[in-house]
Amino acid sequence: MPALTKAQLAAVKPARSHAPVKVPTPELGEGAYVCVRKWSGRDRQMWELAAAERSDNEQELARVEGRKWDWKRVHEFSMARGCVLSLCDDAGAPLYEGSEDDVAWFAELPGDVQSRIFKVTKRVNGLAPEDIEAIVKNSAGGPGSELSSGSPSESAASTPTTSVAS
After folding, report:
1. How far apart are CA 118 and CA 79, in angstroms?
2. What does the DSSP 8-state code read for residue 152?
3. What is the pTM of this model?
4. Do residues 93 and 156 make contact, with C-beta atoms less than 8 angstroms apart?
């Protein structure tokens, strides 16, 4: 089979290949849940670039302050941004743009809720601990650092929702 053409790719772009996953959040109300979606390629790139930039900034700040570089501060930021980019409605439409205000809002949620959502975000988006570590390590490499392009761009078409146990 030959490679897909531009027209063929454009025809499949609107379809979502993965149903959003329901994540129970009883801490936020009786029967409450949020939905987590698979990122588009754009979302994946936003997440990776923000994590790399945050890592570079943290490394420089640690150097200036004369302290050890703390990758956990970068991880916490990456967790919040990743979750914000993953939150969607039942049909898979994104709820947030991933702005700094969105990330700050998410950071105020209870820690156990954040962790539960991030666990599902990592699974749905294929993020293993080594992926996060590689982004943090490669960020200091400057322009030569490689960042994954992630998955193809997807839009929010109506899809069924699946559930995940907490």
Report:
1. 6
2. P
3. 0.63
4. yes
**CATH entry 3.30.2220.20 includes domain 17-163:** yes
* Phi, psi at 36, each rounded to 5°: -115, 135
DSSP secondary structure, 102-147, as one string: HHHHHHTS-HHHHHHHHHHHHHHTT--HHHHHHHHHHHTTGGG---
Domain ranges of the chain: 17-163
Whether 90 and 161 have beta carbons less than 8 Å apart is answered as yes
Residue that the structure tokens 């899809």 belong to = 159
d(CA 22, CA 36) in angstroms, rounded, equals 7
For 54-71, what is each residue's pLDDT tens digit?
Answer: 777 777 877 888 887 776
C-alpha distances (whole Å) from 13 to each of 38, 45, 86, 116, 154 are 14, 18, 18, 30, 6
pLDDT per residue as tens digits for the range 5-53: 888 877 775 545 678 999 999 999 999 999 999 988 888 787 777 777 7
- At 47, give phi and psi (nearest 5°): -65, -45
